[in-house]
Automatic annotation (TrEMBL):
Name the UniProt record assigns to this protein: Fur-regulated basic protein FbpA
Domain of life: Bacteria
InterPro entries for this protein: Fur_reg_FbpA
Pfam families tied to this protein: Fur_reg_FbpA
Amino acid sequence: MSHHLRAAVDQMKEYYIQKLIEAGIYQAADEILYTLTLTELETLVERLNRP
């Protein structure tokens, strides 16, 4: 069960990372991007969607 949870978290992190890269906020080479938590990534993406 924990393997499935880890895989789901990693998948969500990759999704949010791609959103931030596509928005031009980060580049794929930015190592800091890959050290952020899922919550931190979610928060950054939510800020993109605010008017």
